[in-house]
Amino acid sequence: MVLKKKKEIRVDAFSLDCEQLEKLHKFSKAEEQNLASLLLRCAQLNNGIQQIQYIKQIMPLVKTMDQNSACDPMLEACLEILGETYFSLDVKNPLKKVLASSLNGLPERFMTLAVQSFVCCLREELKTTDVYLYRRVLDNLSSCMEDFTLGRASIKNLFKEVLQFLQKSLLDIQEENRNNSGNRIVQTRLMHDLLMAIKVSMMLVQKLQENIQGSLWKNNESFVWQSMCNLLKSFTDFLMDETLLQTVQTTSGLAFILFTKAMYEPAEELPALVSDLLCGSRELAGMPAWFVNNCGALCTEQLSDSVLLFLCHGALAMLDWKNGRMGESGEKLLLDIASVLLSLSSELKESSMATSLSRILAIWTNSALAALISDSPNLKMKLNGNSEVVGKLLEYVYTHWEHPLDAVRHQSKLIFRNLLQIHRTIVTGSDEKSDPFFARLTKRLLSLEWHVKGKYASLACLVDCLGTENILQLDRTIPVQILDVMNDQSLAPYASDLLETMFTNHKVQFTSSSQKSTWIDQWHDVWVSPLLRILCEGNHDQTTYIIDYYLPKLLRCSPDSLSYMIRILQASADANLGSRSTRGALGALMACLRTARAHGHLELSNIMSSGLVSTESIKQGLVHQHNQVCIDALGLLCETHRSTEIVSMEEMQLILFFIAYNLNSQSPSVRQQICSLLRKLFCRIRESSQVLYKLEQNKTKQDLFEDSPERNPLGILQKYRDFMSSLCDKLFEALFPGSSHPTRFSALSILGSVAEIFSVPKGQEPVFRLDQEIDAARVRTLIQCFASTFEEVKVLAFELLMKLRDVVFNLQDSESLDLLFRAAMDLSTSTKPYDCVTASYLLNFLVYHKDLQHICLGKWIKHNPQMNEDASVGTVEKNTLAVIKLLLVNVEEEIFQAKKSLLQAAASFPMYGRVHCINGALQQLPLKNLMFITEWKQIVARLILMSYELSAVVSPVVQSSSPEGLIPMDIDSEAADRLQMILNEIQPQDTNDYFLQAKILKEHCKIESEKLADHKPMENICTEMRGKESQICDVTAQMVLVCCWRSMKEVSLLLGTLCKLLPTQTASEPSDGLITGEQVKNIGDYFKHHLMQSRHRGAFELAYAGFVQLTETLSRCNSESLHKMPEQWLSCVLEEIKSCDPSSTLCATRRSAGIPFYIQALLASEPKKGKTDLLKTTVKELISLAAPLSEPPSVIPQVHALNILRALFRDTRLGENIMPYVADGIQAAILGFMSPIWAVRNSSTLLFSALITRIFGVKRGKDENSKKNRMTGAEFFSRFPSLYPFLLKQLEVVANTLNSDAEELKIHPSLFLLLLILGKLYPSPMDGTYSALSMAPFIPFIIRCGHSPVYRSREMSGRALVPFVMVNEVPHTVQSLLKGLPASTSLCIRQNNIHGTLLQVFHLLQSYLDSKQLGNSDFEKGLGDVITGIRSKLWLAERPNPCLVTRAAFLDVLVMLSTHLEKFQKPV
Asked: pTM for the whole thing?
C-alpha cells in the first residue's frame, strides 16, 4: 500500500561551441543581466536540471525588451544560438520541451526575427545526406509540429524543402535497407527510421492543413502536387512490401488513406474508391490518372490478406465516420469493411496479424457507433442485433473469447460491449429488458458452462446493459454458482470481476430505488451470506482464491458490511474452530479481519479494545491446524494500509508467540508467505521508526502524536530494538546442528530480510542493526549451513554472510580461514555431487576476504607483485583470479591423469567439482568491468582449452549408444578382445569411433595387468582398482557415467558463461574483449558436435543450456559475421538431416537425442518482434520432411523432423509464433501414424501428444473428459480451418475401412487419433448459423466409427459425436440412431454395432438434457419422441438380449432419462 518513488528523470546538459561562446561573450554585460549573459551562464553549467531553471528565465527577460530591440544584433545572435541549441538537443531530452515551451511565449514583435533564425537552422538540418543521421532530422521535424509555434512556422516557410527531404529520406532508407539484407540489427534500426519518416509525412498533412487546402496546388505542374504523388507512391510500395515490419506496413496503410483523402476529388467518391479497392471490383477507367500511375499496384494486383487488413485499418482510422457525413457510400464502405475483416478472420492465423485484426474489428465497432448518430434507417436495419453483420461479429467473439493471446481476448470483450451498445442505440426508446435480442443473448450466455472464460466478461457487459436484478430474476443461484467456480485459479480472476460488476450494479439499483432502509439486508443475503458459508466450510483452494480476489472488492464496495461479517462469524467462532481441511468460523474471521485491515477498513487496536476480537482468538488463529488460518492471523498483525503505523506491544508479543510454533512448517508456500509477511512488518518498523526519530527531534509536534499508544517516541524505539533482538535470538537458536530443512530455510530467510531492511542508509539512523547481534559462534552457525544438502539453504546462508561480511571477517582468525579454504579445496574434488556445490559457496565467500592470498593462497600459488601493488583493483577480482588459477592448475593435472584411467578419475578425483567452482567464481564477478584484462584473457583462453580437453576425455561415454551401463575397459588385451566381440554382436547403429574399437590405454596397461593377474570375470558391472594410496575402491558404471555427464554439464555451462564476455558492439580494437570472435565460433562448433552426438540426456540437456547462452549472445552481437552464425549452423544441420548420409553421426534413436535441442536454441534466439523468418522457413522445411508427398528413400529424416517439431511445439519461448503451423503438425502426425515403420509411428505419437497439449492446454485434473481442456467445434475449426477438410477426409477413409464387407478384422491406425481430437470438442449454445464450416458432414462417419470392434473406439466415437450435432437436431439424430438398432426378431445382430449406437445415444441425450432447456415446449416434444423410440427397443435391456454389455448400456440410457424426468412437473 506504499506509493513507489518516481524514477529520477535524467537531463543531459547542452554545451556550445567556441564560436557561439564568443558571440555571447561579445554581447554579454557584466554590470547588468541581459539575454546574452543569461545564455552564457546557462551554457557554462554541467547540470541539465540547473540549465532548465535558466531557460525558464529567458521569456520574462525578453518580454522586458522594447520594440526597438527587434533590430538589436544581440537578440538576433541569441535567437540564432537558441535555434541551433534546439535542433542539437535529443528528442527525449526534457530540455528540448522546456525550450519549446518557453519560446511559445515569445512576444509577437520578435516572432519574425525568431522565425528567420529557426528557418536558417532548419534549412541546414534538411541538407543532411547521411542516412543514419536522418532520424535526428525526422525527430526535429516531429518536435517542431508538436505544440511549438516557432517550429510550425519554420516548417510552413520551408514546406517544399521539407516535402523534398521526406521523399529523399523514404527512398534512401529503403535502398539502405536492401543493401543491408541479412543484418537484422541494422535493418531493425532502418525500419524504425522509415516508420518515423512515414509518421512525419502524416503529421505534415494533419498539422499543416492550410498548406494543402484549396485547389491551387492540385495541378500536375505544382511541385507540392508532384511531391504528394511521390510520397503516395512510396506509401503504396511500403504497403505492398511483405518484407517490411508489420508496423511499417500498417502505418503506410494509414498514410495511404490520409494522402488519398487530401488529394482525391470529388471527396464524395472517396468511400466508393476504397470500397472498390477492398472488394476487388476495380475499374481503372473510372479512376484518375494520377491515382492509377502512383497506386496502380493496388488496382491491378491481387491484394494479400495483410494489405487488405491494413487498408481497412487506414479507412477506419482516417475517414470521418461521425454523424454519417459520408452518406450512403460511407455506409456501404462501413459494411464492406466488416465483410472483408470477417473473411480475413479465417485466414490470418499469425499471432501479430490475429491481434491486429481483433483490434481493427474493435475500431470498426467504434466507427459504427459514431456513424449511427446520423439515425440512418438503412444503417440501423443493417446493424441491429438480429442482422447478419452483428451475427457474424458475435460468432467471431464466441470463437475468440478464449484465444491464447490476451490481447485478442481483451479486444473480443470490447467488440461484444460495443455490439450491445450498437443495439441499445438502435432500439432507444423501447424496453431493453423485454428486447428479444437481449433476452436471447442472456439465455444463451447463462446456458453456457462456467468453465468458459468468455462467459464472465460477456455477462458483465450484459449486467451493465440490463442490470443485475434482471439477470438474477432468471436464476437466483448465480452468485453461488460463480463462487463455486472459484476453486480454480485460472477462473477466479474472471469470476471475481463478474461478481464485482454484479454486486456494484445491484447496490446502485437498490440505492436508487425506494427501498432505502431495507435494501442492505437483501444485498447481504445475496452477496455476503454465501461468501461466509464458503469461507467456513469450503476447501482450501476455493477459500484462498475468494479471499484474494473477491473479498477485497466486496469490502471496497461496501465497507459497512465488515461489521455484519464480524458479528455473524464471532457468534459461531467458539463452536466452529475448523479443522485441517476447513477454516471454520475462526479462520473465516481471521481472513476477513486481515483483508479489512490491509485495505484500510479497520484499525486493529480499535477492535481489540472494543472487545470485538480478543487476543486469545488471535492466538488460536496463530497456532491453528489449518495452515492458511495461521497465515491469515499473521497477516492481520503484519499487513496495514499505512506503512508508518506504529507496531504495538501486543502485536510484537503475538509475533514472537507465532515464531515459536511455526518455523518448522512443512509447506514451502506457507514458509514463503511467513517470510513475506514478516518482511512487511520489518518495513513497517523501519518506516515508523523514522517518524518516531523525527518526532523526537521536533518536540513541538509532539501534540500531533495522538494515535500512538504511548507519548514517548524513545520508549517505543527501545521496544522495537528489544523485539528485534529477541526475534533474532530465536532465529539463531533454530539454526542448531541437525535442525530440519524447513526450520533452517525459514530462519535464514527471515534473518536475510532483517539484514536487508535494517541496513545503514545514508542520512538515516537505523532502529536496529543485525551486525551488532553477531558473534563468532553465530558466524560458525551460518558457515555450517553450507554443509546442508539443500542448495537453497546454502544460497540463503551465503547471501546473509555477504550482507554481514565486514563483521564476519573481523570475527574470523587466519587459522579458521585456512581451514575453511582447505575444506573447500578438498570438497571440490569429492565424489559426492553436492559437495562441490558446498565448495563453490565457501570459495565465493572467502574471495571477499582482503588477506585471502596472504593467509591461504600463498601456500598454493605464486603471488603476482604487480597485482598486490595495484590498490585500485577490488579485492574480489584479485582473489577470484588467484582462486581460478589454482583450480585450473588442479583440474589440468586431473585431466592428465584421467586420460590414463577414466575409472580412477571417477573413483578418486571427478573433475566436475573443480569446474563447478570455477563457474561459480565467474558468476559473481562484474565480467564487463574487469581491470586485469591481460591476465583474464590468458585465463579465458586456458579455460576454453581445458574445457575441450575435459570434454574429449568424458565424451566417449556420454556419446555411446548405451551410456547407462558402460565402463570404458582400459585393461589388458584379452579383456579388450572380449569387449570387441560383444560390441560386434550388438552392432550399434551409430558411427562413433569409440565403439568400432575397444580402447586400451597402453600407458596404464602394465599396472592394471598386475592388479588383475587373477583374471576376475569381467561380466560384473563393478571393477576393482587401486588408487594412489593403495586403497581398493569399487568403480561402477553409474559412477563413471555420473562423472562424465556432470563434467560435460559443467563444461557446457562454463563455455556458455565465457561466451557472455563477447562485446555486443564492434570493438574499436581487437584487445577490447576478453574473448574473440574466433573463439566463440569454435565454442559454437563444440556445442554442435556434442549436441549432435551425445546420447545421454543429462549431457545434451545441459549442453543445450550453455548453447542457449551462446546463441543469445550472438543475437545481440553487432558483428554481422557472428550475427549470422546461428542461421548458418541451422542451414548446415538441416542439410545434414535431409542428406540421409549413411556415415552421418546423427542419433536417430532416443528421440533424436540432442538434435531438437540444438535447433530449439537456434530458433529461440531469433528476435520475437521481427518477422521470425528463420522460424517460418525451418518449420516449413521440417513439415515437408515430416509429411513427405512421396515415398522417401530413408525414413531417418522423417523421424528427425517429427522429433524436432515435437520439441518446437513444446517450447514456450516460441509462444504464439508456432501456432500457425499446428494444423500442419497434426496432419504430419496423423499421416505418420499410418507408416509401416515403427520409428515413424513412435515419433508421430509423441508429436501428436505435444500438439494436443499445445491446442487444448495442459491437463490439470484427472478427469479425461473435463471441459477445461476442450473447446467448441466452431472455435477449433475457426482457429485451424485447414484441419476441417483433412479430418473429414481421414474420417471417411477410417469409416470405410470399418464398414468393409470382408469378415476379417480391420482397424485403421489413425482411428484413435481422429476420435481423440474430435472427442476434445464440445457443443456450445453460442454456435450460430453464420459459420462457413458446417459440422453435418462429420456425423455419418462418426456414427459408423461407433461400429468399431474396439471398445475404447466405440466409447470415444460416442463422445466425439456430441459437438457435431446442433442442440435442436439431437432428438432427430437420436431417433434415427434408435431406428438403426435391430429388432428382437432380426437374424443378424452385431453386438458391437448395438453397443456403439447406444453409447452415442447416451452421450447425445446427456448433452441434450444438460443444455438447460428444460421447460421449453420444443424440448419436451423432442424428448417425448425419443422416449417413444426407446420403448420400441426395450428388448435390448431384457433377457432376450444375451449380451450383458449392451444390456448395461441400454440401462444406463434409461437411468439417465428417469433421473432427468424428475425435473418435470408433469409426467411424460
From this structure: 0.81
